Fold these 4 entries.
Entry 1:
Amino acid sequence: MIARIRGILIEASLTEALVDVGGVGYLVFIPISTFDKLPKPGQETTLLTHMHVREDAMQLYGFATIQERTLFELLTSVNGIGVKTALNVLSCMPVSSFCTAVTNGDVKSIKKINGIGEKSAERIILELKDKIAKIFPETVYQTPQAAQSAKNPAVEDAVLALEQLGFKREKVLKIVLDIAAGLDKKECSTENLLRKSLQSLNK
C-alpha cells in the first residue's frame, strides 16, 4: 500500500498530477482542492495517497491533507459511491462544509454535487453521520445554532458549564438558545441561563 509520495511535480491539471519520485513518474488523481495547493512544476511536493486496486488497474489518488484523504475513504465506503464521485465531492465542497451538511442532514446541499442524487445523498447521511461526528467532531458544532451561540458569550458559557456537568452539547445548545430567545437582554446572564436550563433538563 502506497500511503504517501514525495517528489518533483512534473505537471498537473485539475484532475491529476504527475510526480517524479526517484526517476519514476507516478500519475496521481486529485480533487481540485488538492490542485489548488500544489506548487509550480519543477518544485517538490508531498501527497498523501490512497491506492485503489481493481481487477484491471491500480490507481493512486492524492490529497493535500489528511482530512481530504479521510473523507475520500469514508465516501468510498458508502454503497454506490465510487472514487470519481468521492473526488467530485472534494472538488465541489470544502471538507468542513460537506461534513457539516452531513451532520445537519442537509440533503439539498449534498445532492447539488455532480453524481449524487437525492437517494445517494440520503444514503451518505445515513451511513456517515455518526462516523463524521467522531472523526471530524468540530463539524458537529458548525450549525446555525452554534453560530448564534458564538454571538452571545453568556449562551456559550452556559453551554460549556452544562457540558462539564455531563450533558451533550447538541442537546443543551438548543435548550439554552430557546431560553435565551424568550428572555430580555438584561436577564440573559450566564447564571440565569444555566439555572433555567437545569430546570428544563431536570423536568
Note: The mean pLDDT is 87.
Entry 2:
Amino acid sequence: MFVLAASATFAQSRKALRINEVMVQNESSIVDDYGEHHGWVELFNSNFAPLEISSVFITNDPNNPKKYPVPLGDVNTKIAKRQHVVFFADGQPDKGTFHMNFVLEPGKDNWIGVYDADGTTLIDEVTIPASLVKDNSYARTVDGAGEWSVRDGGKAYITPSSANVIRDGNKKIEEFANRDENGFGMTIMAMCIVFSALLVLCLSFYAIGKIGATVSRLNKMNASGVDKKEVDKKSVTHDSGEEIAAIVMALHDHFNAHDTENTILTINKVKRAYSPWSSKIYGLRELPNRR
C-alpha cells in the first residue's frame, strides 16, 4: 500500500510538468552549450516542490510517443519548484541530456508532446502553427497556464529558462511608497509588531513557568504521598499573616512578651573587602639594607 501510494503521488507530481515555450527556427536567440543555434522546447515545473523528469518522453510524432527518453542519472533533470529547463531540438542526442533526437521543421505545423514514463500517459501537448517565423517563439501567457501566443521579442519578451511574465516592479510596494512617503507608517507598524511579539513571548513564558511550578509541586506531593485535598484543607485553616501580627501585638501589649530572647547573644559577621593598594608590603620601592 505504501509503494502504491508513493507511486500515485509521484505520478500526480509528473502531471504538473508543462510545455511552456517553443521556438522552431532559432537564428539569434539562445545558444546551446556548444555555441550553436537550434530550435528549443522549454518545460516548466508548475509544482511547488522539486520535480524529477528523468525517464519521461518528449516527441514530435504522436505515433511514436517514446521517441526521446530523457536519460536517467543527470542531476540537472531535477527541476526546482516553479522553474524551467530547455531542451534543444537539434537531432544530436549524443551531445548531452538536453539535446533531443529530432528537429523542428519551419513552415509546418509542429506537434510536441510529453509522455510519462509508461509511454502511454500524455502529460502535455502543443501544436506550433506553421506561420511562426524565425526568432519568434510560441509561449503561454502565464507560466504553466493560460493561452498560447506568438512572441516576437519586442514588447512580448522571448524568455527561455525564465518566467514568461517579467515583472520589473511591485505594485504593492509602489502603492505603499505613495501612501507613506516618509516611512512613518512602516516604522509604527514595525514597532507594533515587535512589541506585540515580545508581549506574546512574555505571556507565554509566564504561563509556562506557572504550569511548570504547578506540575513540579504536584509531582513532589505524589512522591511524598501527600493528598491534594488535605493540603487544600490545611491551606484554608492556616492563620494568615495579619492574624499572626494581631496576636503578637496583643501579647506584647498585655504580657510584655516579645519574640526575641534577651538571654541570647547574637553575633553577626561583618565581611570587609580587602584592597592591597593600601598595604605597605606592596610598595613600589624598598629601602636598601645595610650589611
Note: The two ends are 104 Å apart (CA to CA).
Entry 3:
Amino acid sequence: MQEVADPGFLERAWTWVSAFVVLAWKEHTREFLYAIAGSVWAVMRLAGKTVESGHVGVKFSFGRAVRTCEPGFYPLIPVFQVIRIVPSRARTLDLPRQTLATDDGLVFEVDANLVYRVADASKALVEVRDYEAALGQLLSLSVHEVLASRDRSALRVSRELDLALARAMQERVDAWGIAIERAGFTSIRPLQQTTRITQLRSRLRTRARVLDTLVQDELPAGLSLGLIGSPTRMTSRTRSLRAVERRSREAAELRNLTRRLDTWLASKDKTLLSAERGNFLRNAREILLARR
C-alpha cells in the first residue's frame, strides 16, 4: 500500500517557516541589517578592487599577471581574479649600520641609504618574492663591494662613492623593474683601533721631526729622546707581576675570611642579617685594599 502525501503539509511548513522568519526579524532586526551590510561589503570586495593614487596594481587572472592597473576601480571575478597593489612613489630604504674590513685589515662602520621607485610593477611582483627585503640585502652587498676594494684614503663620504653605489645597485635591480633614484653613504667612521693605527704613522713622523730639530740644535740624542718622552707609561715587568700577585693574595684572603665567617655562624648556631653580613665583608675588603 502506498502512502498518500498530505497535500496541506507543504503549505503548513511554509507557513511555519514564514512565521519563524518574521518573528526572528522582529526580534533581531539590527543584527540582520549588520549581517546583510557585511555580506554586501564582502561581495563588493571580492567583485572589485580600488587602486588609490600613488599606487599601481597588477591584475592576476587564474594565477597569471594579465595587466597593470592605474589608479581607479576595477571589477573582478571573485576567487579567480585578484589585484596586488604596490606603491609607485619614491621610497627610502635605510641600511642598518654595517661593519666591514678593507684589504689592509682596517675596520670601518658604514651607514647608507637608498631612494628607489617601482618602475615596472609586474616585474617587481613576479621576478622577486619580496622586493623590499631583497633590496636591503643587495644594498648591504653593494656597500661591501664598493668599499672593500678602496684605499683607506678614499673611504670618506663623497659624490664618487655615492655614484658608484647607485650604479652597482641599478645593475642588480634592473631585472626587477625597480629604478634607483639615489644611493649614498651617510657616514663612514673608522673604529677606535683603526683610528689609532691610521694615526700612528703621522704621530711617528711628527716625533721624528721634533727629534731631528733637537739634534740639529746640538742636543745629544739621548737627551732629545728624554725631552720628547714616551706616549705611553712605562711599567716595570717585576712591578706589574708584583701587583698581580698582591691582588690575587688579597682575593684569596677575602675568600678565606668569608669561609671562616660562614663556619663560625654554623658552629655557634647563630644567624646574622644579610645586611650585617654584607657590611662586615665590605669592611674587610676595605681593610685589605688599604694595605696597598
Note: The chain has a mean pLDDT of 77.
Entry 4:
Amino acid sequence: MVILIADDEADIRNLVKITLEENGYTVLTAQNGKEAWDILRTRDVNLVILDVMMPVMDGFNLLLKIREHSTIPVMFLTARTEDMDKVLGFKLGADDYLTKPFSIAELVARVGAQLRRNNEYLSSKEKANTRITYGSLSIDKEKCCAFKDGEMIELGAKEYKLLLHFMENPERVFTKRQLYHAVWDEEYYFDDNTVMVHISRIRNRIEDDPQEPKYLKTIRGIGYKLHYTGENNEKKTI
C-alpha cells in the first residue's frame, strides 16, 4: 500500500513516514500541495494524508483537485481545529480529520481503518462489475480473459494488465512511465522500450491493421490512449 504525506513541516513528514514504513507501508512525501498533486498524477497512491496550511497550494484546494479525478481515501492531519474547518474538509470530500497535536498510534489505526474500508468497497465493486466492453473488445475480469468480436484473444500477463488498464480508463492519455508504474509496479525503475514492445503485441492482437490502429492510439510526444471511433464506443461494465 502506498501512502502520500503532504505537509510543509519536515518533522511531521519524517515522523509519520518512519512510523508508517515501520508498519509495512510505502510512503511518499511532499512539502506542499503542488508537489503532492504532481506525485498523484504520476503514481498510484492508496491513501493521502494532507495538512491544510501549506504553501503554493493548500490542502483544501488539493482535495478539490483530487476529487475531480479520484475517490481514494484522504485524511487531514492539521493544526486547524475549528469546527468550521472540519465541516469544510468533510464537505470537500475528506474521509477523516485528525488535529495536531496527535497520537501517532491513533493515526496508524485510522490509516488502517480507511484502507480496509476502501479495499472492501473496491472488492465489492469489482465483484459486481466483472465484464467491461468497449467497441468490439471485452474483458472478463473474473476469468482474466480478453475477447474481440466474441473470440478470445491470446495475451501474456502484462499485456492483459495493460489492456485492462486501458479498458478501465478509455479516452484517457497515459505516458509510458505511468503505464510502466501501473502494470509493472516498479517504484524506481522505468523502461519505455518494454512498454512499447507490449503495446505493439497488444495491437497485433486487437487491431485489424496494427499500422493504422482503430483502438490503441499513439498520442505523439505524450503516450497512448484507448479510443474507438466506430459504433458501440461507450464503455459498458456488467
Note: The two ends are 28 Å apart (CA to CA).
